[in-house]
């Protein structure tokens, strides 16, 4: 196996497994940049996965065909935002502890999704969907030497969408008035309030957007990787996204990079056992590689990760 | 206003945690006046009796047993569902207190709990599926997965066009090793030139890992992959479907039950290795009713007892392959072929074959 073959095996795989994490991590960026901790990403992603599986299944029944995964993405975003509104009400309007509320979201999502699955399908899991997002080569771009084979062959469209959304989020947060307001609310809400920014409204938008993106991440996971929803479909991916967001220093492009890094580390750890040269390394080392690489990167390369200043504190008008 | 809103949110969140426990709430009805005294029950793990897998199969076996012996549901035979690992012990205890003559724990996850309960309640009769624990009042039900895996290994060896097949395991353990070695022996018997790629995901619930392993295997030229990896195996199906859509001729061999449905609509399931938990539950219930409770023993269900086998959906398997599967099934039952379970036994098997 040549070096190119090895890269062609690892790089596309890294991009594939990173896509759901990218969406969810971007959601986290919106919420936390506005000053609201969102531990609930896991639950929001889980519920998105459930909604995704259900919508695709019924989309198939209704004859939507190949469009049903895309319809499910939209539905999962809407439902994700609605679901996140519980977190928003509890932590913004009622000033509840944001971590506790987020944990509650995780419990609620897990319980509700399984309960509804049982009610709808009379089974512990949804049926396996047949309309999926499939791997394909991107026309023209995949013909570029070297790069084409690595980045534009044998990949999901949703992966490019994830990168594209990351760029949009970056643009929105750093180049638009809304982004400036969102960030200012997360850093110093009182100052923002004095300047006439509606803190509550801005934070609501941040949390709802995080719900929408996390829901999308879950639906993408179902449509491209797992193919159905069970109680074990989303186990920890939301927390990995949360880690990717912190790893990426609450910056959209940082989160994108971190999610891709996680994907790459995992791909190396899995494919490593079949790659000449790497396969002589004891398997244990390859298995722990993603975690060791993450610790090294966090401790050595990234440096201090500064959270938004007002993260975790509810805003009370007039309080000093 | 705020207070009301707060109450609403609290109510919703509480409802969520309670909802998870719903589904079936048939608690503690004591039996009275059955025709027969014998009562049998089971505790599911978190999957529930409609998980299309282990628990469902066990419940089907128990239901059949109940019907055949005209027992009433929820009186003569019943199940309790566990929503979390912490439910196992209370569920087992509650059934014992309701004087069920035999209580099954479904799945190896319940192993330690069954062992503890058996120690605390020496008069109770318990059975555990897929695991061996200590205690004279526990019947240990295991399956000869290696024998079933041998059969699907034959199929893979004979139908592989590239002479390369793969095995994806969940977690490297004694149990999954049985699948691996049986499969490898089957492939070797059918096609000595074939190479078997083996990899463990070290996780039963990570579809993306399964997908990546399958990707690596197929890329290296394997055309059939046998998975014994639960939810991780869903990723193997995903990868195979993607490749079949792009015109590659690749297959997956399913596990535990007939996974034909998982392979649709691209039709990538070649065949499956099924474990007949229903058969085992039925059998042990019958023995216990007849006063022959196999306590403290290990009861292994193999090809002979119809405890493992090849799936009923066989449209993708060639005629002559099916015939030789039948031949070998007979040979295994007659003891002519001894299928290896462990790595050491496999090496021995390999040496003897040459």
From TrEMBL, chain A:
<feature type="transmembrane region" description="Helical">
    <location>
        <begin position="99"/>
        <end position="117"/>
    </location>
</feature>
<feature type="transmembrane region" description="Helical">
    <location>
        <begin position="204"/>
        <end position="223"/>
    </location>
</feature>
<keyword id="KW-1133">Transmembrane helix</keyword>
<dbReference type="InterPro" id="IPR001851">
    <property type="entry name" value="ABC_transp_permease"/>
</dbReference>
<feature type="transmembrane region" description="Helical">
    <location>
        <begin position="6"/>
        <end position="29"/>
    </location>
</feature>
<keyword id="KW-0812">Transmembrane</keyword>
<feature type="transmembrane region" description="Helical">
    <location>
        <begin position="70"/>
        <end position="92"/>
    </location>
</feature>
<keyword id="KW-1003">Cell membrane</keyword>
<dbReference type="Pfam" id="PF02653">
    <property type="entry name" value="BPD_transp_2"/>
</dbReference>
<feature type="transmembrane region" description="Helical">
    <location>
        <begin position="284"/>
        <end position="302"/>
    </location>
</feature>
<protein>
    <submittedName>
        <fullName>ABC transporter permease</fullName>
    </submittedName>
</protein>
<keyword id="KW-0472">Membrane</keyword>
<feature type="transmembrane region" description="Helical">
    <location>
        <begin position="36"/>
        <end position="58"/>
    </location>
</feature>
<feature type="transmembrane region" description="Helical">
    <location>
        <begin position="155"/>
        <end position="174"/>
    </location>
</feature>
Automatic annotation (TrEMBL), chain B:
<dbReference type="InterPro" id="IPR028082">
    <property type="entry name" value="Peripla_BP_I"/>
</dbReference>
<keyword id="KW-0732">Signal</keyword>
<dbReference type="Pfam" id="PF02608">
    <property type="entry name" value="Bmp"/>
</dbReference>
<feature type="signal peptide">
    <location>
        <begin position="1"/>
        <end position="20"/>
    </location>
</feature>
<comment type="similarity">
    <text>Belongs to the BMP lipoprotein family.</text>
</comment>
<dbReference type="InterPro" id="IPR050957">
    <property type="entry name" value="BMP_lipoprotein"/>
</dbReference>
<dbReference type="InterPro" id="IPR003760">
    <property type="entry name" value="PnrA-like"/>
</dbReference>
<keyword id="KW-1003">Cell membrane</keyword>
<keyword id="KW-0449">Lipoprotein</keyword>
<protein>
    <submittedName>
        <fullName>BMP family protein</fullName>
    </submittedName>
</protein>
<keyword id="KW-0472">Membrane</keyword>
<feature type="domain" description="ABC transporter substrate-binding protein PnrA-like">
    <location>
        <begin position="39"/>
        <end position="342"/>
    </location>
</feature>
């Amino acid at each position: 196996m040549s070096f190119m073959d090895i890269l062609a095996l690892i790089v596309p795989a890294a991009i594939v497994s990173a896509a759901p994490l990218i969406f969810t991590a971007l959601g986290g960026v919106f919420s936390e940049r506005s000053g609201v901790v969102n531990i609930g990403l896991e639950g929001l992603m889980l519920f998105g996965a459930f909604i995704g599986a259900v919508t695709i299944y019924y989309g198939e029944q209704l004859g939507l065909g190949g469009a049903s995964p895309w319809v499910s993405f939209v539905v999962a975003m809407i439902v994700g935002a609605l679901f996140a509104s519980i977190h928003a009400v509890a932590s913004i309007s009622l000033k509840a502890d944001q971590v506790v509320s987020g944990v509650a979201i995780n419990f609620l999502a897990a319980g509700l999704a399984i309960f509804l699955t049982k009610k709808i399908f009379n089974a512990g899991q949804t049926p396996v969907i047949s309309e999926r997002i499939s791997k394909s080569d991107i026309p023209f771009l995949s013909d570029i030497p070297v790069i084409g084979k690595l980045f534009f062959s044998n990949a999901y469209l949703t992966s490019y969408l994830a990168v594209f959304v990351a760029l949009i989020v970056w643009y929105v947060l750093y180049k638009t008035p809304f982004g400036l307001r969102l960030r200012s609310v997360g850093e110093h809400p009182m100052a923002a309030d004095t300047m006439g920014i509606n803190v509550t409204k801005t934070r609501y938008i941040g949390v709802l957007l995080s719900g929408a993106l996390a829901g999308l991440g879950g639906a993408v996971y179902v449509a491209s990787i797992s193919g159905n929803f069970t109680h074990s479909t989303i186990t920890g991916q939301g927390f990995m996204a949360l880690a990717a967001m912190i790893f990426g220093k609450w910056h959209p492009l940082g989160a994108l990079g971190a999610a891709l890094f996680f994907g790459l580390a995992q791909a190396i750890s899995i494919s490593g056992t079949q790659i000449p040269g790497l396969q002589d390394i004891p398997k244990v080392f390859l298995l722990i590689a993603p975690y060791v690489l993450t610790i090294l990167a966090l401790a050595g390369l990234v440096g201090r990760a500064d959270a938004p200043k007002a993260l975790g504190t509810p805003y009370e008008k007039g309080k000093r | 206003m705020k207070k009301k809103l707060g109450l609403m949110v609290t109510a919703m969140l509480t409802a969520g945690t309670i909802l998870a426990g719903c589904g079936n709430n048939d608690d503690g009805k004591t039996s009275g006046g059955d025709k027969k005294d014998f009562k049998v029950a089971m505790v599911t793990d978190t999957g529930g009796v409609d998980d299309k897998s282990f628990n469902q199969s066990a419940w089907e076996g128990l239901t059949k047993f109940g019907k055949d012996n005209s027992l009433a549901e929820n009186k003569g035979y019943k199940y309790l569902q566990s929503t979390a690992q912490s439910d196992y012990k209370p569920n087992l205890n509650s059934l014992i207190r309701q004087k069920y003559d035999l209580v099954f724990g479904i799945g190896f996850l319940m192993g330690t709990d069954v062992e503890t309960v058996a120690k605390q309640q020496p008069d109770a009769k318990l059975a555990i599926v897929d695991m061996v624990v200590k205690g004279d009042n526990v019947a240990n039900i295991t399956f000869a997965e290696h024998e079933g895996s041998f059969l699907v290994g034959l199929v893979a060896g004979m139908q592989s066009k590239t002479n390369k097949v793969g095995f994806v395991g969940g977690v490297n353990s004694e149990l999954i090793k049985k699948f691996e070695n049986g499969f490898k022996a089957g492939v070797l018997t059918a096609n000595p030139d074939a190479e078997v790629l083996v990899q463990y995901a070290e996780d039963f619930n990570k579809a993306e890992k399964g997908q990546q392993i399958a990707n690596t295997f197929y890329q290296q030229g394997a055309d059939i992959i046998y998975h014994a990896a639960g939810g991780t195996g869903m990723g193997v199906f995903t990868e195979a479907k993607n490749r079949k859509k792009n015109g590659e001729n690749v297959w997956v061999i399913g596990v535990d039950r007939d996974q034909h449905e998982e392979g649709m609509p691209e039709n990538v399931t070649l065949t499956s290795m099924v474990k007949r938990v229903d058969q085992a539950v039925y059998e042990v219930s019958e023995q216990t009713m007849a006063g022959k409770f196999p306590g403290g023993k290990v009861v292994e269900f193999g090809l002979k007892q119809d405890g493992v086998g090849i799936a009923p959906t066989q449209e993708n398997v060639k005629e002559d392959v099916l015939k030789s599967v039948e031949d070998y099934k007979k040979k295994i039952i007659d003891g002519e072929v001894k299928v290896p379970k462990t790595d050491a036994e496999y090496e021995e098997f390999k040496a003897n074959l040459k």
